[in-house]
Design brief:
Layout lengths: L1 H38 L4 E2 L4 H6 L9 H21 L3 E6 L6 H14 L5 E5 L7 H5 L7 H5 L10 E2 L5 E4 L8 H5 L2 H12 L5 E5 L8 H5 L5 E7 L5 H11 L4 E7 L11
Parallel strand pairs: 1-4, 2-6, 2-7, 3-5, 3-6, 7-8
Antiparallel strand pairs: 4-5
Helix pairs in contact: 3-4
């Protein structure tokens, strides 16, 4: 019995030590979290319209489990690619207008921000046809174009939309000389702000379609990788073939199939 009692005594001591150790670890994590929170800049508040978000099928207003599951899978695959290569930015593009690349960009950014380990910037870089602010129903004064043309400061174009770990840089107005702005010194300064703003964030750029302008080709060297969005029943084979030639010059992470007719409504898989 003495041996059993001794074993029980040691086991009890080990459990107590484990509890103290876990408590210390939790305190350390909480301390790190507090440090991170204290370094985060407070951005301008921009109210969003949940009804507009629901109409536009934005992720946190959609109750379709299969949609949520699909974006979580996309998020995890993107995170694996980013982590494996030390990347921090991804551009979302399509071949032509109407394939769902803005919806994909917004919902991917939301899905990434839902992971407590990620902080995200969502940037509307479609300077000719900006839609991110519209999709979220945002109300704001200045956008990215205002910064790039010297009419606003960085602090005036980054918005807190009351979604944890997500900051949005919308675009207030379109411009015709978009590719020139993407290569301008102001854009270099803007990217520097994004890269040095604590904590280090994943940057999701909503880009124009590949075949609509030269913007993607001009900006591609400044983005770690791209996702190409194609739409079932809408993206023509000839269009995709033309885009394929342009993609030879771009680092493509993968292809997202939008409006797929394949569904799995199982409550589990």
């Amino acid at each position: 019995m003495g041996l059993i009692e001794e074993a029980l005594r040691k086991s009890t001591q080990q459990r107590k030590g484990s509890v103290r150790g876990n408590g210390a670890l939790s305190a350390a994590r909480a301390g790190r979290s507090a440090v991170v929170e204290s370094t985060i800049r407070q951005y301008l508040a921009a109210p969003v319209d949940r009804e507009a978000m629901h109409r536009n099928r934005i992720l946190n207003t959609v109750g379709d489990v299969s949609v949520t599951r699909a974006y979580k899978i996309l998020r995890t695959r993107v995170m694996h690619r980013l982590g494996a290569n030390g990347w921090h930015s991804v551009g979302i593009t399509g071949t032509t207008v109407g394939e769902g690349k803005t919806l994909t960009a917004v919902n991917l950014a939301l899905a990434l921000a839902q992971d407590v380990n990620n902080w995200v910037f969502l940037v509307d870089l479609d300077l000719q046809r900006p839609r991110v602010g519209t999709y979220l129903g945002m109300r704001y004064e200045h956008g990215l174009t205002d910064y790039l043309t010297g009419q606003a400061e960085f602090s005036q174009i980054v918005y807190d939309v009351s979604i944890p770990r997500l900051a949005v840089i919308p675009n207030a107005r379109s411009v015709e000389f978009s590719s020139e702005l993407l290569l301008s010194p102001h854009m270099s300064d803007f990217l520097h702000f994004l890269q040095t703003e604590p904590p280090r964030r994943i940057v999701v750029f909503d880009m124009p379609p590949l075949l609509a302008s030269d913007d993607v080709l001009a900006f591609a060297p400044r983005v770690d990788s791209f996702l190409l969005v194609v739409s079932q029943g809408q993206t023509a084979r000839r269009t995709l073939s033309n885009a394929k030639e342009m993609l030879r010059e771009i680092n493509v992470m993968g292809v997202v199939l939008n409006r797929s007719t394949e569904r799995n409504d199982s409550p589990y898989y």
